[in-house]
TrEMBL record:
PROSITE patterns: HTH_RRF2_2. Pfam families: Rrf2. SUPFAM superfamilies: Winged helix' DNA-binding domain (SSF46785). This is Rrf2 family transcriptional regulator. It comes from Vineibacter terrae. One of its GO terms (molecular function) is DNA-binding transcription factor activity. One of its GO terms (cellular component) is cytosol. It comes from the Bacteria.
Amino acid sequence: MRRDSRLSGMLHVLLHMAEHHAPVTSQTLAKAMGTNPVVIRRVMAGLREQGYVRSEKGHGGGWTLARDLAEITLRDIYDAIGCPSLLAIGNRTESPDCLVEQAVNAALDTAFQDAQALLLARLGDVTLAMLSADFHARLAARPAALRTEIDHVH
């Protein structure tokens, strides 16, 4: 199964936006993420509808954060991008009348639900402000000559 990296990618975009004190264009964000500006605009539109970002058109326009980083959790962004599947494994469904398959699936369903509840709770405990603080601590720990991480969006 292919990994879904939309949550990670969108968190990356939002943290880069937080480092800017002016609107950031879809083109600039797409370049940083190695994708197409249309992809950025599509995902950002969903975040705009949820009130996490805003957009400004015209010269000097682009995307800005609409809320303080401390008010946005990873769970908020997960929900805003459509709740992608958290687990890459699932139940076998080829023989629904098979009692063995039913027993196996019942046990796995419980485990999957428990794991998902735990992960969603953890995502709700982490804010973008916490991620930003971690980024800044990592940046400060680097030698000055290597502190170019944020430059790939400029």
